[in-house]
Amino acid sequence: MASPDSLHPLLYALQDSVMLLAPVGWTTVRLTLVPHGRMLRLAETEVKGDGAKEPERMPDLGVDVQAEAFRLSEGLTELVERLREKGKDWAPGLVEVSRAGGACDWKLLRADGSVAWFTRLEPKELDGLLVSDALLRAVRGSERAFQALQASLEARLGRVEGFSYSASSGTVRIEREGQAPLHVFAELVGRYDVEHFSWLWSWADRASKSARVRRVCAPEAQTPGLAAFWRDGFHCDEAFAFALAGHVTVSLGASGLFRAEVPDAKEVLLFALEPRAS
To answer: pTM of whole model > 0.85?
Structure first.
């Protein structure tokens, strides 16, 4: 049966966590939970793939596995508590998450293997979530190119001491230790709010409205599985936002990604630098 609507946002967050912790292309994930004080703790994760296929490599998203496992434990604790309030009591044990036919089933299993609670996330729901196999494969596909660009750019920049940005001319002035300032054409990819752990794409930013970034992210198309690009913004770790911005940087044909901390503000701007000097 479908889960109550009130549980959907929580289930979506749980699904994203599983996607970040399991290899690309998984078919079944079994999560072993044990009581730990007032919450449940993820003690073991068992992953199965499709037949004899080796699990696909995950792109480097800078995910802190322990922190993500803790978030998953917190979310599962909340799920169990909310189900208990609805009269669905369950002794902590196995949670099974399985995918088939484009849908994803979540089951809370009893000690004898019987199902204590079940819900299904339909393909349309999964296509709009933040993390998907399509997203992970897209980022992995551009990862090597971005790493090469970034290594070259960072060697060129050296130690950065400050920056200024002119939206009218589309240029960034980068102050460097022991070197002359560098003026570079730049495209603002997005901004990260450090205090609220949130990312905003520049195509949705009133201050920039980047048409080039918008073409890459394609919010009008809303490609299934690539919601991280066509959502205007979302909560995430900064490393995750940086990896997505790196993919966009490659698609723009830029020479690398410049991370700029805004003085006296808990905000980071990410610029795709053009391969030509201003």
So the answer is: yes
